[in-house]
Design goal:
Blueprint (H helix, E strand, L loop, with lengths): L2 H30 L22 E4 L4 E3 H4 L4 E6 L6 H19 L4 E6 L7 H11 L4 E4 L2 H10 L4 E2 L12 E2 L3 E5 L3 E6 L5 H15 L1
Parallel strand pairs: 3-4, 4-5
Antiparallel strand pairs: 1-2, 1-5, 3-8, 6-7, 8-9
């Protein structure tokens, strides 16, 4: 075997070894993930990078933390009650999924966190959430509390500075987060996900959580 041929063979062998190590690592990581069969998305930094502790005010005016609210599997959404179309549509989808899950025998809590504290006082939230679903939990708080919660969930929103129009719009992201007790954040859903698809996927996660 010539020197050049030997070099090619060694290089090829090294490349194959690296490839096999990579495949083994991915397989091991997937095998260690109890939710591997349920995941539909890839989260940069891993699921543990999203979610965390928060302190907010519920629709009854009580100060609550994530430990008070997320006691069951929960679907968490950041929006605002004055939203003209996106938030009502997204939350309508979320509570429809909750109803499907109820029929399947799964108890899941829908949660709505306002990103518009100036207008979304507890009494406003209560009227809005009670209209959408009897189990929908509405959360608001100070600007600092809401910003901290949004940062923990890696979500974006922007309230106009000194708005002159009382019907101002708030720019915000629209993903819904699935949170599981003992696991934290495990999945998110886009606006395109149907209630039925969401319910089936949530059930998969709950089943695999044990």
């Amino acid at each position: 075997m010539s020197v050049s041929t030997r070099r090619i063979a060694l290089a090829s062998g090294s490349a194959i070894a690296v490839l096999l190590i990579g495949i083994f690592a991915v397989t091991q990581q997937r095998g260690a993930d109890v939710f591997a069969d349920c995941r539909q998305s890839v989260i940069a930094g891993g699921a543990g990078a999203i979610g965390g502790a928060f302190t907010l005010v519920d629709e009854n005016g009580a100060t609550v933390t994530d430990r008070d609210v997320l006691t069951k599997p929960s679907l968490v959404y950041f929006g605002y009650t004055f939203c003209p179309d996106v938030c009502p549509a997204d939350m309508g989808r979320n509570v429809a999924a909750i109803d499907v899950l109820d029929e399947m025998g799964y108890d899941v809590t829908p949660v709505f966190i306002s990103v518009d504290p100036a207008r979304d006082k507890p009494e406003v939230l209560k009227e809005w959430t009670d209209y959408l679903h009897p189990r929908l939990v509405g959360l608001t708080g100070s600007e600092e509390q809401i910003r901290a919660a949004a940062n923990a969930y890696k979500t974006y929103y922007r309230v106009p500075e000194n708005p002159e129009d009382e019907y101002y719009l708030v720019d915000h992201m629209t993903q819904t987060y699935l949170m599981l007790p003992g696991h934290g954040f495990v999945e998110f859903y886009s606006r395109e996900t149907s209630p039925e698809t969401m319910a089936e996927n949530v059930a998969c996660f709950v089943d695999h959580a044990g």
